[in-house]
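User: I've been trying to design a sequence by hand for this structure and keep getting stuck. Would you show me what you'd pick, starting by listing the structure so we're on the same page?

Assistant: Good idea, let's start from the same input. This is the structure you sent:
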C-alpha cells in the first residue's frame, strides 16, 4: 500500500512539472501581415504565425486590421494594438500594458461613451482632448460646455470643456472624466491626458507602459 501511495504521489508531481506555465499577461505590440508580435509576461517581443503555440500556451488564431485573436487560458481573446490580456484583471485588478510605436509614442484603441476611438497617451495634456469631428461622431453635445480658447498645432482655437461619461482602454474603465473639445484641431488624434491618467499607477519599462487603475 505504501509503495502504491508513493507511486501515486510521484505521478502527481510528474504531471505538475510537465504542465506548461500559463501566461499571466499577453500584450499585442505589432502586426506583420498575418503574423502578430506579442510580449508575454514582460519578456522580449516575439513573432507568432497563425496556429503557432508558445510554451506559455498562447496560440495565434488569426489577425485583422489593428487586432489579433488568440487562444489564451483555453479561451478565445481578441486584442487590439497595444492592448493586453491579464490574468490579474480576471481576478479583479484593472490594468493594461501598452507597447510603444516606432516613434516611441503609446497609441492604443479604446472607447469614449461606448464609441470606439484611438488614443495617444499624453502626460503633458491636462485633460482628455478631442477634435470636434470626433466629438460629433461620438454624439457628444460639446456646444453646451464651458467655452474657452486653447493652443493647438494650428494656433489658437475655440474649445469647450465637457464631462465624458466613460473612458475605457483594455480592462480599465473610468467614469466622469473631464475633457476638452477643440474646433480647430484637425490632427484627428484623441489625447489621453491627465484627467484620466491621474487615476492610474503608471509604470514604464523600456518599450512598454503598464497602467493600473488606482480609483
Amino acid at each position: 500500500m505504501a509503495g502504491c501511495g508513493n507511486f501515486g504521489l510521484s505521478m502527481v508531481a510528474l504531471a505538475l512539472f510537465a504542465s506548461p506555465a500559463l501566461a499571466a499577461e499577453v500584450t499585442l505590440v505589432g502586426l506583420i501581415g498575418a503574423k502578430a508580435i506579442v510580449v508575454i509576461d514582460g519578456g522580449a517581443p516575439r513573432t507568432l504565425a497563425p496556429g503557432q503555440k508558445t510554451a506559455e500556451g498562447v496560440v495565434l488564431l488569426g489577425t485583422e486590421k489593428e487586432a489579433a485573436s488568440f487562444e489564451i487560458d483555453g479561451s478565445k481573446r481578441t486584442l487590439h494594438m497595444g492592448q493586453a490580456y491579464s490574468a490579474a484583471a480576471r481576478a479583479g485588478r484593472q490594468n493594461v500594458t501598452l507597447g510603444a510605436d516606432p516613434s516611441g509614442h503609446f497609441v492604443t484603441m479604446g472607447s469614449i461613451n461606448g464609441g470606439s476611438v484611438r488614443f495617444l497617451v499624453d502626460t503633458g495634456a491636462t485633460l482628455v482632448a478631442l477634435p470636434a469631428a470626433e466629438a460629433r461622431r461620438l454624439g457628444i453635445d460639446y456646444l453646451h460646455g464651458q467655452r474657452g480658447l486653447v493652443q493647438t498645432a494650428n494656433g489658437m482655437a475655440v474649445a469647450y470643456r465637457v464631462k465624458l461619461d466613460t473612458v475605457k482602454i483594455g480592462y480599465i474603465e473610468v467614469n466622469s472624466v473631464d475633457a476638452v473639445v477643440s474646433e480647430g484641431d484637425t490632427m484627428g488624434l484623441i489625447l489621453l491626458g491627465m484627467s484620466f491618467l491621474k487615476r492610474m499607477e503608471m509604470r514604464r519599462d523600456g518599450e512598454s507602459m503598464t497602467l493600473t487603475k488606482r480609483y
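That's my pick for every position. To get oriented when you compare it with your attempt: The helical segments are 2-18, 87-90, 132-137, 194-197. DSSP finds four helices and 17 strands in the chain.
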